[in-house]
Amino acid sequence: SSCHQEFSSDGTKHGTLTSPHYPSPYPPNTHCHYEFFGRGKERVRLIFQDFYLYKSADGSIDCTSVDSLQAFVNVDGRLEKVETFCGVDLPKPIMSNGPKLMLEFRGTQSSRYSRGFKISYSFVENFGINTGRQLKEFPCAFVYNSSEAHNGTFASPNSPGPYPRDTECTYFFHGGETEKVHLHFTNFDVEGVLPCQAVSASDYVEFSNYMTEDNRFGIFDHFLMLIILAIPQLHHQLYH
Predict the structure, then answer these.
(1) Nearest 5°: CA angle at 189, between 184 and 194?
(2) Span 2-124: which CATH code?
(3) Chain segment 114-151, per-residue pLDDT in tens
């Protein structure tokens, strides 16, 4: 059995994707391609609702030569594999590095328990970050003002899934004259080695802490800027 589907943000910004015959078992020798086409700054984000592929009981944790779902993104004009999923563990969300993403499903085996998968897809411009106020003039930037909220949470793009490659996000924190910004990391997982900069081919988080004068009001704001940089070759996750 073969299948091919295309999803364009021109048609709808979000929807649901399922394997053939879901929630019934997918047929043996299934081979499907699912292509997503966004526009401009849009990223493709996939959130897994259900995932159950056939896997033999030999205890292998390798996804090669078994039923699997692979994700590909566009890197320098060519498709590059970024994730491979198999078995029954529900994958974390994934996000593209640009407006395009492709999934390839190979289901050579099957069983009466192999119901396949159900995925919610969306074309987003907020990088899956739902807190703060997004600054549209930046590729990826969010501002947090103490005048709007004195505490809260923020996360890396696509949290709790891996952050997309080739992505730089900036977070601005503005406090009042007598306030300080305090960050408490509840989870930190960034790919790289010392000295944690591009020269070592590392993703990194950079902090900048200084005072700026607001010329409109003649007052000083306490200010903290945090930058997350994911170089093209690497991707992992960071969330707070």
Answers:
(1) 100
(2) 2.60.120.290
(3) 899 999 999 999 999 999 999 999 899 999 998 898 88
